[in-house]
Write a structure and sequence with these properties.
homodimer; alpha/beta; Rossmann fold; 2 domains; 6-stranded mixed sheet; 14 helices; globular
């Protein structure tokens, strides 16, 4: 299971490869939030999201002869790109199974990273797990799961090591840390890193309305699932339920979850544009939205938020700016 | 006159205040340019442009009793915000003289930074220099010029110190460095820093079509002025001519200037959005445009470009993304 030594080993393997993203701030954001706001900007990570951390960690941790046979991932988005880039930089093949109706740009990006993309027909009832199992067995591939995988969590935890160091440079050791939360890989990884390196900080996951499975799971003490649709505005972080590995970590270490509206997310995207000059995708802006618009739920003191990714289509972003 | 020791002193005064901006990259940009492209991202600097470096350097270099009386700047844009923020953080008054028809947002931002904004009527023939001289004499203010001022050049030069260090970390000591060039403060500051710290690098200024005063001045060997209008798409870097201090520095140290079209600038803004997740304003994207679309003029080897600022209105940026 992931612990601080596994996170530190992941950081060691990532040295010179994974980008140390900046911790940004703006007095204008502080004014909106009524407190100091520091923004860990993973949109600036390679591949445009924190997912490269976990992808690199998992691929680099494989025994060389296993890695050489190749890796496999299911994803229509950021995890696909994180794994594809990690495989490309290791010089090993990546097979990514994507829904045929995934955004054209994401398919093209994943192809451009040298991955083999296998498309399946979501609507037509093709079973992606069956396709994956067949390819895995035929080729000896290793499946890299998107969040419920110890080495992936360790990789995301390297973001937490940087938060602890960079916040300390700003004189901050006590803070609420808001994470953009899908399956809980980033949230649990950061929580484990901060438990060891910044025990004065409390991590709280943030989710969009209608997809608050983690908040409800933390409140209930058992894993709860989303009842509604699978798709939505904050596409990068819509998962049906927290993971069997990530949930117990979050349960032990995190404060209560927060839920934001899509309109708050849009305004956070505009604020990141105006004040930080950073492109945040919808799922990457939920934590900033909570910091800006849910201060009453946060108690006192500074808040540190992740902007977890920036992979958003031009047309969608232009529409958000024009609203 | 500005030299490396003045730049290093500026860096010392800026420690913990001016942000060390990241040197970003993307294999997708490398593919477009046909070479390695590293992007020094000053849009992520405080106030959204490199101008905070020069503003901080100049304000912090003043004797305390002089600084306490306050500073004065003429600007409708990024220099206004750089000086205003530097004054605010020193706790001294800033008076910024702005045209009444400057973008509302830039006036509001400058006010929000605690500056006194004095508006003048450009069209009605009011002389801003007369207004400035009157305020300076009445209040004992110190004028901070936007580029033709040694301590401002020294401040911009701190960006060059970082480029030298960060490129060396990537194993790069030989490169073409493309700068977004208005009056030449950033260009001459970076050139002085690299002369001392990375002598294998050659700086080349980049300008937009119709405002290529620096390129023509370098070619002619004497200062040339722009004949056309004062306003244009790349508003942040439109100056009538290089400065009397900056030009001799550029003449001694820089390679020939490059000129890009507005359409190339728009495409560079889209590429920065797609590939770096960074907001570049038009004037901040000219150097990236040259790297991506004028490779034939660059010789071999890696190129380092500045994205000098990101202060662009939502509507303009949305329009660029939608084109």
């Amino acid at each position: 299971m992931t612990d601080i030594s596994m996170i530190e080993a992941a950081a060691e393997r990532a040295r010179g490869i994974v980008r140390r993203t900046p911790l940004l701030s703006s007095p204008f954001l502080d004014a909106v939030a009524g407190r100091r706001v520091l923004v860990k900007c993973e949109a600036l990570q390679h591949t445009g999201s924190f997912k490269f951390r976990g992808g690199w960690s998992a691929v680099s941790a494989l025994p060389e002869e296993v890695r050489a046979r190749g890796v496999l991932a299911f994803s229509s988005g950021n995890h696909a790109q994180g794994v594809a880039r990690a495989a490309e930089r290791h010089g090993v093949p990546a097979t990514i199974i994507m829904p045929a109706d995934a955004p054209r740009l994401k398919i093209e990006n994943t192809l451009a990273m040298g991955a083999e993309v296998v498309l399946y027909d979501r609507a037509g009832g093709e079973d992606r797990n069956e396709i994956g199992a067949r390819l895995r067995d035929a080729r000896g591939l290793t499946l890299i799961k998107p969040f419920d995988e110890p080495q992936v969590i360790a990789g995301q935890g390297t973001c937490g090591l940087e938060i602890a160091e960079q916040a300390a440079e700003e004189g901050i050791t006590q803070a609420t840390v808001l994470t953009c939360c899908g399956g809980g890989g980033l949230t649990s990884g950061i929580a484990l890193a901060l438990e060891a390196r910044a025990p004065g900080m409390v991590v709280r996951p943030v989710e969009p309305e209608g997809f608050d499975d983690t908040a409800r799971s933390l409140a209930a003490g058992t894993i709860q699932r989303n009842a509604g649709p699978e798709a939505g505005f904050c596409d990068a972080i819509l998962t049906p339920a927290p993971g069997g590995i990530t949930f117990p970590i979050m349960q032990r270490l995190c404060g209560p979850g927060l839920v934001v509206t899509n309109e708050e997310v849009r305004e956070a995207m505009r604020q990141a544009f105006d004040r930080l000059k950073v492109v945040a995708e919808p799922g990457g802006a939920v934590a900033l939205a909570a910091a800006l618009f849910h201060g009453e739920a946060l108690g006192k003191g500074p808040v540190i938020v992740t902007i977890s990714g920036g992979n958003v289509d031009r047309a969608l972003f232009a529409g958000v700016l024009s609203a």
